[in-house]
Amino acid sequence: MSTFRFEEQKSLSLRHRVADNVRHAILSGNLKSGDRLREQEIAEQMKVSRGPIREAFSLLEREGLVENYPYKETLVATMSKEEITEILLPIRFTLEAFALKKALPQLTEDDFTYLTTIVEKMDLAANDGDLVTLVDLDVEFHRFLIQKSEQRTALQLWQGIDMRIRLHFMSHGKEYVDLQEIPREHRQLLDALKTKDLDAVLNEFRRHVVELNQ
After folding, report:
1. What is the sign of the dihedral through the CA atoms of 20, 21, 27 and 33?
2. pTM as predicted
3. What is the pLDDT of residues 79-92, one digit of tens each?
4. Gap between the Cα atoms of 155 and 102, Å rounded
5. In the chain, pLDDT over 90 holds for what percent of residues?
6. Given 27, 70, 197, 198, which is the most exposed site by the fewest CB atoms within 10 A?
7. Beta-carbon contacts of residue 27 (< 8 Å; ≥ 6 apart)
8. Helical pair 181-195 and 109-127, crossing angle rounded to 10 deg
9. What pLDDT, on a 0 to 100 scale, did the predictor assign at position 167?
10. Cα–Cα distance between 171 and 79 in angstroms, integer?
């Protein structure tokens, strides 16, 4: 690698630790869409200067979790119904449909066992009323299938919308009357995957990703 050398890595920077803290608060539902994030107040609570807070907000804005208005305010991001139905969900389905075409023939019994374990964990989380864990498991179910496709572009694009998907779930997950609906839906997806019938799988994923979330 010629004479180039990477710099020695220190512990996670302060701005990243701040970003992790704020991200967790958003994705755990402690901060809601539209909530105002006050630099001075957060700096005082964390006992840090405002500089790392501002830098953390920039990181989170790139992830789609906050909306920064220069010289005004920073808010936890919101997504309109139009953004969800016309941008986020179609992008999700296009990515997953492409990945599934590549991944489906490669899925093994071990893969189905892993996905079954995820669904079983969903059952437990639903019984406990644990929406945060359900969101994590939901995202992991879908990310696993994209990883199995071995399509780097699809995985990179998925990672680009990962946080927006989580934010959407946290914003609208409370609408589920019965959280057990989430593992039930994924059990149906898993049953379709096991058939390895591409048309049946895509139809089930279209229903799951697009129709059920509109």
Report:
1. negative
2. 0.83
3. 888 888 888 889 99
4. 12
5. 43
6. 70
7. 65, 132, 135, 163, 166, 167, 170
8. 170
9. 86
10. 9
Beta bridge partners of 70: none
Q: Which of 204, 199, 175, 177 is nearest to 189 (CA)?
A: 204
Mean pLDDT of the chain: 86
Q: Cα dihedral sign for 70, 26, 179, 96?
A: positive
Percent of all residues in the chain with a pLDDT value above 70, rounded to a whole number: 90
Strand 66-69 relative to strand 73-76, pairing: antiparallel
CA distances from 73 to 17, 56, 57, 64, 95 (A): 21, 14, 11, 16, 34
Write the pLDDT tens digit of every residue in 62-72. 988 999 887 77
pLDDT reported for residue 1: 42
Phi and psi torsions of 31, nearest 5° = -115, 130
- Burial status of residue 85 (CB atoms within 10 A of its CB: 0-12, 13-18, 19 or more): middle
Q: What's residue 2's pLDDT?
A: 52
Q: Is a pLDDT exceeding 50 seen at residue 35? A: yes
